[in-house]
Specification:
single chain; 363 residues; alpha+beta; Alpha-Beta Plaits; 2 domains; four-stranded antiparallel beta sheet
């Protein structure tokens, strides 16, 4: 299992800041929707020997590897308490869920610890939303708050610097090369429809921070965003009637004739090199969601924007583009986040033009 390039933890185990941020979000979603989830805390504070400390991380890796994509394993308290968020309980009773999870965790502990050490580990179960049935399992919300700062290790800092240098150099090069295209596209947009050249939209970047996302305008100015809102929300929830897994609306009535050309060739994306140059985006990374899309995300979906800066291209664009399910798109994003390196970025950048020329799934 590979080591995360920009985190202090082993792949599959979210760091303390990220895990508690996800936990806070999931609590709010559970309180709003009533959808239940289980938080399991595994406390190793009574085990202080160095050999055991190494075993603790191995246990976390083993638990992360044995859980579903919809579950999250991470440090609730760094190097002392591992937390696991179990979502999608699928109507299973709390007692049955607790017994099943308890058995799995005890199995992991006995495989990695001496029998005398297993008894020193404290395991607590916390079901949400909180009610009478789970009142004995509740924990104070103050313990779920996350710190605002985190320190990256040296390899993480070096990767961040190298990635930023690549982003600046790549965006400057692209803006210089495509500057004639900017002029031609701008004139064509003004000649074929009324309205501005650029389309500005609020998107969510790393850690959910809003920024102004730039594209060449491909739609009529007076259009109803409700069409896209309903389509994407249904798609994320798995209710969209799109058997081919198309992520974008086909034959969208809001798009101009020239806009169809821009979208099919991905030329409408060129202004995002400005977002990369200003540091709001990267050349490679998950696509930034619209706030109303994020509202429909499940907990595991949210990792795609919390753990990486959004990008112009990524694994999804290279291997799936618009013809893939939303869940599969997220899995590709998480695969990139888990394995990312400068070499992987360069490979994705090399393959992106071929995916654009092929035009699969572009509308």
């Amino acid at each position: 299992m590979k080591i995360l390039k920009n985190r202090k933890t082993t792949a599959g185990i979210a760091d303390e800041v990220l895990f508690n941020r996800l936990l806070s979000m999931e609590r709010k979603r559970s309180e709003r929707t009533g959808a239940p989830f289980l938080l399991v805390l595994i406390n190793f504070e009574r085990l202080v020997r160095s050999r055991v400390k190494n075993s603790i991380e191995n246990i976390g890796v083993a638990i992360a590897a044995s859980t579903r994509d919809t579950d999250i394993t991470g440090w609730h308290r760094h190097r002392s308490t591992i937390g696991v968020i179990f979502t999608a309980l699928n109507g299973t009773s709390r007692k049955a869920t607790r017994e099943a999870v308890s058995g799995k965790i005890h199995k992991m502990l006995t495989e990695h610890l001496h029998p005398s050490e297993v008894g020193s580990v404290e395991i607590s179960f916390h079901f949400f939303p909180e009610n009478e049935e789970s009142s004995e399992d509740c924990i104070e919300s103050g313990k779920l708050l996350y710190a605002e700062s985190e320190q990256e290790d040296l390899s993480g800092k070096l990767f961040a610097v190298a990635k930023r240098v690549t982003d600046i150099a790549g965006s400057l090069f692209a803006l210089a090369v495509f500057s004639p295209a900017f002029l031609v596209i701008a004139v064509a947009i003004k000649m074929t429809s009324a309205g501005p050249v650029f389309y500005r939209q609020k998107r969510l970047g790393k850690h959910g921070v809003e920024f102004t996302f730039l594209k060449f305008r491909s739609m009529y100015v007076a259009n109803d965003s409700k069409i896209h809102r309903e389509f994407t929300q249904n798609l994320i929830r798995g209710n969209a009637n799109n058997p081919e897994g198309v992520y974008k609306i086909q034959k969208d009535p809001r798009i101009t004739r020239f806009g169809h050309i821009l979208r099919s060739t991905s030329l409408d994306e060129l202004p995002q090199f400005i977002n990369v140059l200003t540091g709001e985006m990267s050349l490679v990374g998950p696509r930034p969601p619209i706030p109303y899309e994020f509202e429909c995300y499940q907990l595991w979906h949210r990792r795609r924007i919390l753990e990486a800066k959004p990008g112009i291209t990524g694994l999804w664009q290279v291997y799936g583009r618009s013809r893939t399910s939303f869940d599969e798109m997220v899995r590709l994003d998480l695969q990139y986040i888990r394995d990312r390196s400068l070499w992987i970025d360069l490979k994705i950048l090399f393959k992106t033009p071929f995916a654009v020329i092929a035009g699969h799934g572009a509308y």
